[in-house]
# Entry
Amino acid sequence: MRAEASRPGQSDPISPTAYATGHFWYRHGLSDEAFVTPQGIRLDRYARVVIAALKLFGGVSLDALMLARHRGIDARLAEAIDRGEVTQIVEIAAGLSPRGWRFRRRYGDRITYIETDLPQMAATKRALLARGHFLGARHRVAELDALADDGPLSLTQLAATLDPAQGTAIVTEGLVNYFDTDTARGMWRRFAQNLSRFPRGYYFADVYPQAKKVEGLYAAFGKLLGAFVKGRLEPHFETSQDVVDEMKAAGFRRVTVFETYEIAETLDVAQVKGGDRVKILEARC
Ligand SMILES: C[S@@+](CC[C@H](N)C(=O)[O-])C[C@H]1O[C@@H](n2cnc3c(N)ncnc32)[C@H](O)[C@@H]1O
# Structure
């Protein structure tokens, strides 16, 4: 059963943003040519106008925010792998993110990386990874709907294909604010339930605690992006403590919310207005 209406396999309103972010990672040297698409080039051109306007009129760097969230998740995930606690990674709503490719280059056969997304985006990602000759038994793409409780697109079915003796991490980036809070809560519960079956289970994500009423440029940007994806961007938390409380209610036992200035890899962008808006969630079962 799916918690919310949108039809997997058909075009998802959030998916176009994945082309824009996919090209953003490439433009910032984090990705490979194999991930470049005509849609990405086109949408990134529009995104650059918005980014420039935000910078010009509000001094806010969306570049810094994006780099902080991406590098912050990378850093926390890498630490868990380096400690030997995680060898299986399921990235949910991976879009055209190059993280799987970069982590496989860095860790080789020490890890298994499964990139997942709704069917249409998963097919695109699979084709792009195949184009770069990056696919293999330890780097694959699966169709997954983050809102499915059960059935062929559910996390539960995918988790059943993983090695139950290995530490496992779920990653989402740039996803949860597209869902309303109740829908997101259902998803976090599903993540915790599935991760608790492994000897170690981690969830890493970008989070944006903020006052309920956002004004000025951030509000304008939220509306613009909301219009682009034909929805509304939902703030779920007012404070980092709210994030901790939500994750514990979902079933996670240990929860840390990192400021970007607390992570060496994001220290530079944390000094820039925008790079300080995102926080990195590490929740453990
Ligand atoms: C903003 S993009 C982020 C992509 C990638 N994580 C990144 O940061 O570059 C959002 C992604 O969420 C995916 N998505 C939307 N609804 C989803 C759902 N219910 N289950 C899984 N993925 C979903 C879209 O297809 C899209 O690839």
